[in-house]
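Support case: zinc ion complex. Customer-provided input:
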Amino acid sequence: MVQDLLYVLDAMAKVGGWTLPISRRQQAPYISKTQLVDVLEQIAILLELSGANGFRVRAYQNGSRTLASMEEDLFTVVSENRIVEIKGIGKGIGGLITEAVMHGSWGDMKSLYDKIPPGLIEIVGIPGLGPKRARILYESLGIDSVESLKAACELDHVSPLSGFGKKSQQKYLDGIDLLRRYQGRTRMDVGLLYGRALEEKISQIKGVEKAQLAGSARRRRETIGDLDIVVSSPPEQHENVINEILNLPGIAEVKGFGESKVSLILEQAMLSNSINSGSIDEKLAETLIERNSDATIDAQVRIVNPETFPFTLAYFTGSKEHNIRMRQEAINRGLRLNEFGLFPENLADGKIGMEAAKHTLICVDESDIYKSLDMDWVPPEMREDMGEIEAASFSKSSLPTLVVPSDLRGAFHNHTIYSDGTNTLEEMAKAAQSLGWEYLGIADHSETLNIGGRQIGIPSEKVPKQSEEILRLNKIWKDENIDFRLLHGSECDILADGSLDYSDDVRNLFSHVVGSVHALGSWRNRDEIENTEALIRAIEDPTFTILGHPTGRILQVREGFPIDMHAIIRRMGELNREGHLKAIEINASPYRLDLDWRLCKFAKEQNVPICINPDAHDINGLGDVWYGIQIARKGWLESSDILNTRNGTEIESLFNS
Ligand code: DGT
Ligand code: CA
Ligand code: ZN
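Agent response - structure generated as follows:
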């Protein structure tokens, strides 16, 4: 079952359906065994969806399975023309494999891939719903997406079909539900959007003194399970406040409520006409609404008396691990700490909840709680029991002063219409200036990057044109005494063997090179050691400046490739100590947030500078740095640990040296 779900999730992840792998290799074998195993399996499903006969479908299923269990090296077998001698691989499939391995092409398979609606691929794999049934649903009811399947089941259109019935229909609904729950967590940007909307709506209710987001959202985890909101209100208002909350717009379902707690499922309408602060949020809300996303998120709301609020807020902010340490600190001082207060042991005896709360030591805010335990207030992002308890204690008082968004003076990794961006150099520059930045690093894609056969990267011969345009713009600003410059960098592909795209001469034209892996296929099919060696090779190149989105992960969609990130950071540290500038980026796109926050402290200890890069593909994308800052804070970083807090002149001279 989990296998089924993973399979669907993976299929759904590939927005727009499946695509045939494109080789990035310069010579055979162009396509790896793992890639072929996947493709053959996909072809079997696509054939079944398109109504091909069962014999053909099974041939591809068998082919995939046979290949997966083949012990001999595929390239050797293919080169020696022995592939059709393998039991389970016929002439047709043998030919397909040979063509893919030796030439990297797929015959006429592309038309099969193009023919099937992506939504149809998504519904295959919902428990009990294979390609055969998906095809019947498509032909008889026009069902071509998870959404349309859900609607059809709810309207009872599926059960009358011959061979389906009420039981199957319910099973699909349960399956869709399970799928959503399994996907379960929500990206930080979307979670915060819902969280802030609810926070604001509750704050405006009469009788509410304060409503504040707690939980993983307040700790700025990269994904959020459910929202936790703590509400402060005088006791005589609680009943009314709860009623008002239950009547807010945008609630898909009330899962339960009591005297001090409401458990909700929020839906998209929560975002409509919510008074949101900041343009990033509004943009995202619009996009979600445009896509008519039926994403929902759970929210737990706790209503407490004003004097209890700081304790409840601290408790539900977590993390659980941090709370456990805090409780121990309390015990060490003869105190008891929970969501209702901080009690001297003897006073709290035998009393629970609000009854016990009467006996608490008084704390007007969170910092009072920490102070009572001889500690500095710990910023919520750091409450993960990763050393903050020790650093906060009065005996050390060594918590870092965390970086804030206004510390940034520019960024190094952004795209324009020269590659896959949608704004011009000038438009991007204007947007950066309006953020108060002193520089904007342009790093369009490099030559080899193509998606679906379309070249995305800038061909070598067009690089000088971009240089000239940047020089021209920089001169204008200089003449006008405006402290702003574009930095002409490149997001240069790191090829599978660790070499960098473009010739040395071309790469030397750039002010900085953001080296990134994009052809994930071969990196994900290799082991950690090979990948680590290849990446280190890339980093050692004299033109290499910044490691872009280090693992290539897309949150909740795909894992990054296997890599020993500690080894990478260690090597970068050595190179920095030898006088080279080798920085690592926190890709601030909320889809990536890569480098992971858990590795930031290590990078800092190794003296590897961090860049917070929005990887913007349009002017609005620049705002993503905010998410990068949250992650940097979560990783204990201070302004001085971050390269793009330096001023424009400093950066210019650093990149020139
Ligand atoms: P999430 O929702 O999975 O993204 O993560 P959190 O951290 O929001 O966790 P959640 O919603 O289960 O609970 C919110 C906070 O409540 C959690 O961070 C710490 C506190 N908490 C929950 N359960 C426990 C517990 O069993 N022990 C302690 N000490 N604290 C807990
Ligand atoms: Ca939570
Ligand atoms: Zn990239």
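Residues 413-656 form a domain with the TIM Barrel fold (CATH 3.20.20.140).

Case will auto-close in a few days if no follow-up is received.
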